[in-house]
Amino acid sequence: MGVDLPQTQDAYASAAAPAVELKGTSFTLPVLRMLSKDVAAVEADLKHRLAQHIRFFENAPVVIDLSALQHLAEPIDFPALIAVLRRNLLIPVGVRNGTVSQTQLALLNGLAVVKGGATQDLAIGAARAASAAKVESLRKEKSTATAQAQQDRDHGAPGKTKIVTQPVRSGQQIYAQGGDLVILGPVSAGAEVIADGNIHIYAPLRGRALAGATGNTGARIFAQSMEPELLSVAGHFRVFEDKAPNNHYHKMAQAYLEGDKLVIVALGTLE
Known about the structure:
Layout: H1 9-15, E1 31-33, H2 39-50, H3 54-57, E2 60-65, H4 78-87, E3 90-96, H5 100-108, E4 112-113, H6 125-130, H7 132-143, H8 147-151, E5 162-164, E6 173-176, E7 181-183, E8 192-195, E9 199-205, E10 208-211, E11 221-226, E12 230-233, E13 236-239, E14 253-258, E15 261-266
Parallel strand pairs: 1-2, 2-3, 3-4, 5-7, 6-8, 7-9, 8-10, 9-11, 10-12
Antiparallel strand pairs: 11-14, 12-13, 14-15
Helix pairs in contact: 2-4
């Protein structure tokens, strides 16, 4: 008489239809650099900064940078900090540049660990081993092109200059992975252009431009007519409600980092 044996896990896996897919992708996330552990002071400053620009950051995922708080001996009140960010319509998703104890505490409060670019090392020690799966997932996100980038009609290749000959219209996103982005038409309000290297726009820039997306602090943004909604270099961003400062609105200008400050100067200006 035959005996029915239970199916093995491998047999079940081969017979069952997949329920999920796990793949890497690439996103540009706003970074909130903590300069104080005083949660009340953080909320007051945050409300002031977001008062005129909340539409750009409503329900946006945010990475918390702890590099300025590594000297603290006392713990950071992550539950209170998370509550403050959510009250202000920001969604905290992870931390970077924390100490071992700060990172472990962040993990216990449901935050991921994010490695912040080629020039920044995350001091996570033993916590890194505990969160190896999360770290590996985020690393792959930075090294893999997004589905949107693959569907763009332009033919830029990773590691090379990507050239866009058509206007970038509202709602579109163009990403140059691993290199520079050159755009020969206007970038409309509501459009977003992203590059791991520099961004050159030989027409008006009226949307958002994010250069150095994977942490290149030497990246720059050049525009024939500077009229942006938002500029970002290596995660340091500025939002413009009306006009770019220092009389550069509607003029040829470039944006780059001086330390942690994003500045705009006219093209041809000596640094």
